[in-house]
Amino acid sequence: MTDEIPRAIGDSGRDLAAVVAGGTIDVPDFPKPGIVFKDLMPLFADGRAFREVVDGIVAHYGPDSFDVVAGVEARGFVVAAAIAYAAGVGVVPVRKAGKLPRQALSASYELEYGEATLEVHEDAFIAGQRVLVVDDVLATGGTAGAALELVERGGGAVVGFTVLMELAFLKGRERLHPRTVHALLTV
Ligand code: AMP
């Protein structure tokens, strides 16, 4: 037995991993029994931590490496919009079914808890536009796979996929292989 606190790990180093870990509350049995929901609202509400995380993601990809950020509904919107603003590019919402007002592409997938469909406007991307795709949490990888597929079907060129937190035991990274995943915190 040791009472040493395990150190956070992630693809942008221990310091950023610790920032994400420090801004997360584990909520057991939400939205259903057996699921531990990773609530990142405290991170979003902490201006300094949120800025560190957003700046860390922009720094990971480097200047002028993407033309637009696609964020997955709903918490992905928060992160995507901030990254887009910091990088001086636009943002494209990848939405749940039935929310978009115009002609959309759609992709269905299975979640850790249920099934869902994502959509994006069919004219959301300019052909060859470099797209960074972001979400809050990577679990089984179904959501990410559908979002990445939609970007490509829409004509975008995926430059990367970033999440604040990856739940490694659900093997989303393996499911998305050979695409690479950039996760600030891996638990
Ligand atoms: P998945 O498709 O299984 O990778 O699930 C990822 C999507 O579901 C992301 O959009 C997350 O916001 C959400 N999600 C799945 N599991 C969790 C969890 N344990 N805590 C918070 N969000 C989750």
From TrEMBL:
Q: What does this protein do?
A: Catalyzes a salvage reaction resulting in the formation of AMP, that is energically less costly than de novo synthesis.
Pfam families named in the record: Pribosyltran
Top-level taxon of the source organism: Bacteria
Similarity annotation:
Belongs to the purine/pyrimidine phosphoribosyltransferase family.
Q: Which gene encodes it?
A: apt
Give the Phosphoribosyltransferase domain ranges. 60-171
| Annotated catalysed reactions | AMP + diphosphate = 5-phospho-alpha-D-ribose 1-diphosphate + adenine
Q: Molecular function (GO) terms listed?
A: adenine phosphoribosyltransferase activity
The reply to whether Cytoplasm figures as a keyword in the UniProt entry is yes
The protein's name: Adenine phosphoribosyltransferase
Instruction: Look at the named UniProt entry and state the broad enzyme category this protein falls under.
Output: transferase
Q: Where does it localize?
A: Cytoplasm
Q: Source species, please? A: Paractinoplanes ovalisporus
Q: What is its EC number?
A: 2.4.2.7
